[in-house]
Design goal:
Blueprint (H helix, E strand, L loop, with lengths): L1 H33 L11 H36 L5 H29 L1 H20 L4 H29 L5 H23 L8 H8 L1 H10 L7 H6 L3 H12 L4 H17 L11 H18 L2 H14 L4 H26 L1 H11 L10
Helix pairs in contact: 1-11, 2-5, 2-6, 2-7, 2-8, 2-13, 3-4, 3-5, 4-5, 4-7, 4-8, 5-6, 6-14, 10-11, 13-14, 14-15
Membrane topology: Multi-pass membrane protein
GO cellular component, one term: membrane
Keywords: Membrane, Transmembrane, Transmembrane helix, Transport
Length: about 375
């Protein structure tokens, strides 16, 4: 009798173990298929998700545009609004936008998780439209500052949501390349602002047209995002598994839906197991990751790159260099760097590019380490 119990128990344990192994192998196979290494299925087509990446990149384009829109226009704007020669007022026109971006960035995560990625993009575009219109019609310094504050709020919301959205809707094998598209769009926005600002010194009131021009892409972002796909990750987290499958089918194609859902379910279980409190980010093993990520962003800003985008026309003019030619060179250099990252991100890896970029920024024009 006892022997039969032992045999039954052994069969139960063996069956449970086999079930666990089979389940694990199934999950592994689904992840393998999703990542595109299955011999019989290949990688999902990048063409399916690419239009949505381009649409999301509009927010990065607007971010770059509003970074550079005051570069060529600041002088004529200061004459028209009565603060020419007031360096404090000129600095406020620039920094008010950054202050608004700080406020917007504080709420971008909550907005994206609360209303979804698509609605977050639309909420990002709304203050950009309002702020650009206010800046274009400003009659004095205070009107311009209020408009720049609205614009900054939209700038703070957009890029974090864009980075999150791109990571969640792109196939794994091109995720790095698609992530670089946002930086490329920022560079194009900067160059667009510089080019459209060139006539500002010759044509009276042209600076107002420069602000009006940014309303169009913001409006396009608002309208077309209504027809874009929602992030399957966000839908799954909200308990809308069927909707997540439908979006995966649009993004990856039918053969990849089951594998994508398996990986999503697995990552969701991992997220629930690894949930931490905000205070835990500042001690323990989380502290190192937070410190490294924050330091990278801080070093990028402390490099002074934003000052180039804001005041390069003034600096080049004081040095006796034609601002138009110099700004074109700055824009092209920035664009070439982004193009290099675009084609090499998934080949060389993130770490190698970070080391190379920060090493290069440590040298001044004389070739000495600064």
């Amino acid at each position: 009798m006892r022997g039969r119990h032992v045999d039954s128990y052994s069969m139960y344990k063996r069956g449970t173990r086999d079930h666990v192994i089979n389940t694990y192998d199934y999950d592994k196979e689904q992840v393998r298929l999703l990542s595109g290494v299955g011999k019989d299925i290949g990688n999902p087509s990048w063409k399916r998700s690419f239009p949505y990446i381009l649409l999301a990149a509009l927010s990065s384009f607007l971010f770059g545009y509003h970074l550079g829109v005051v570069n060529e226009t600041l002088e004529s704007m200061s004459h028209d609004l009565g603060f020419h020669g007031d360096t404090m007022a000129e600095g406020l026109v620039v920094s008010t936008c950054l202050g608004g971006a700080f406020v917007g960035s504080l709420f971008s995560g909550s907005i994206a998780d609360g209303v979804g990625r698509r609605r977050a993009f639309q909420l990002c575009a709304l203050p950009l439209i309002i702020g650009s219109s206010m800046s274009a019609t400003a009659k004095n310094l205070w009107g311009m500052l209020l408009g720049r504050l609205f614009v900054g709020t939209g700038m703070g919301i957009g890029p974090p949501v864009a980075a999150l959205y791109v990571a969640e809707v792109s196939p794994a094998y091109v995720r790095g390349t698609y992530g670089s598209c946002s930086q490329l769009a920022t560079c194009l926005g900067l160059m667009g602002a510089l080019f459209i600002g060139f006539p500002a010194k010759q044509i009276e009131g042209w600076w107002r047209m420069c602000f009006w021009a940014s309303v169009a892409p913001a409006a396009l972002l608002t309208v077309f995002m209504e027809f874009s796909v929602e992030s399957p990750h966000w839908l799954f987290k909200r308990g809308r598994g069927a909707d997540a499958e439908a979006e995966f089918e649009k993004l990856l194609g039918g053969p990849y839906v089951k594998g994508a859902m398996a990986e999503l379910s697995k990552s969701q279980r991992g997220d629930e197991a690894d949930t931490v409190k905000l205070s835990e980010l500042f001690y323990g093993h989380h502290r190192k990751v937070v410190f490294m990520g924050s330091s990278l962003f801080a070093l990028q800003q402390l490099s002074g790159i934003n000052a180039v985008f804001y005041f390069s026309s003034t600096v080049f003019k004081s040095a006796g260099v034609p601002s138009e030619s110099a700004n074109i060179c700055v824009g092209i250099a920035n664009l070439l760097g982004s193009l290099f990252a675009l084609v090499s991100m998934d080949k060389l890896g993130r770490k190698a590019l970070l080391i190379a970029s920060f090493s290069g920024s440590g040298y001044d024009y004389s070739g000495n380490f600064s």
